[in-house]
Amino acid sequence: MIRKAPTSIAGRLTQPPSNLPETDEVGRLIEEYLAHCRARGLAPRTVREAYGFPLRRIFLPYCRETGVETLSALDRACLDRWTTGLLDQGGPRGQLSKFTVASYVRAVNGFLKWAQAEGASGAARAQAPRLPKHLVEVLSREQIQQLEDAATSERDKLIVRVLADTGVRVSELISLKIRDITIRDRGHFLRVQGKGDRERYVPLPRLGRRLIHYVERGRPQGTASDRIFLGLRRRPLGDFEPITRSGVNQMIHELAERAGLQQRVHPHLLRHSFATWALTRGVNPVQLAEILGHRSLAMIQTVYAHLSPSDAYDALAQALLKDD
């Protein structure tokens, strides 16, 4: 017997896609959950890739193949078979790493937790695979200077330095506007629009004046765009377009090759490098999480995992010496 969705949820369901049968409770609730995620203010790309893909393309097909149409049918054994299948057989794009499977499990468990809070009954929780300890690669301050030195334009040099000295995400960097360079009580700051449209102020102890000078004298003038970082060439219509995410990725990759760096270098590596450098210099993890735009200390704890005992010793010694 197929169990219908509880009225507490069914009354608020958005119109399900036309290809969803009326009996497909799981499919309809997934669409409602994704609408809920979007209503929370999560970025469309986050909803689409972090939640939509695992639920629509990975989990829902499994439910349909195995005849699961209600949440009550999702017991631990059913969810274990799903996880095991991903580890053994992979997904639609091929073999999956344990880290990828764990990310899919997080998405499904978030959906099941939401459904239970909304009044649905019966679903268990999926078990994530045990993950190997993952150490984050970083660049030294000397290697970052090599990257900057390899750049031939002030724009590229500043992009490297902003990423490395503020820890902003590449999506945040390309969205920066001229008015986001602000002066507050202690000096220059960047006003950054982060994930979920959460605004934060990132300190610019050494970069503030340099950014202002670039905007006034180095950035292309007379353009309609108010973004700080623009493309280096005019478009067919004669204006400069803002630099894109792929443009920054390609530029960082080319600078790393030019500088002779051996590891794979990408913008997010500069973010990890900034976090590591800040922690080894005794920056409070709570303050660092705020600068990076994180709601919790989870990422900070991950970064701490690759710091050696001597790093922790030096940081503590530095803090104690300040009190003497």
Topology:
Layout: H1 7-10, H2 25-39, H3 44-65, H4 76-89, H5 98-117, H6 141-150, H7 154-166, H8 170-173, E1 181-184, E2 187-193, E3 199-203, H9 208-218, H10 245-259, H11 267-280, H12 285-292, H13 298-304, H14 309-323
Antiparallel strand pairs: 1-2, 2-3
Helix pairs in contact: 2-3, 3-5, 6-7, 6-10, 7-11
Structure notes:
53% of the residues lie in helices and 5% in strands. The model is unreliable at 1-18 (pLDDT under 50). The protein is mainly alpha-helical and 324 residues long. The longest helix has 22 residues, at 44-65. It has helices at residues 7-10, 25-39, 44-65, 76-89, 98-117, 141-150, 154-166, 170-173, 208-218, 245-259, 267-280, 285-292, 298-304, 309-323, and strands at residues 181-184, 187-193, 199-203. It folds into two domains: 7-117, Orthogonal Bundle (DNA polymerase, domain 1); 141-323, Orthogonal Bundle (hpI Integrase, Chain A). A three-stranded antiparallel beta sheet has the order 1-2-3.
Helix content class: 40-55%
**What string, H for helix and E for strand, traces the elements in order?**
HHHHHHHHEEEHHHHHH
By secondary-structure content and strand pairing, the structural class works out as mainly alpha
Q: Can you name the CATH architecture of the largest domain?
A: Orthogonal Bundle
Biggest sheet, spatial arrangement of strands: 1-2-3
| DSSP E strands, number | 3
Task: Quickly name the level 1 CATH class of the largest domain.
Answer: Mainly Alpha
How many domain regions?
A: 2
Quick one: overall form? elongated
The amount of beta strand, in percent, is under 5%
Rounded radius of gyration (Å): 24 Å
CATH homologous superfamily label of the largest domain: Intergrase catalytic core
Cα-to-Cα separation, first versus last residue: 73 Å
Major β-sheet annotation? 3 strands, antiparallel
The overall pLDDT average reads 83
User: Number of helical runs?
Assistant: 14
Pick out the low-confidence regions.
Answer: 1-18
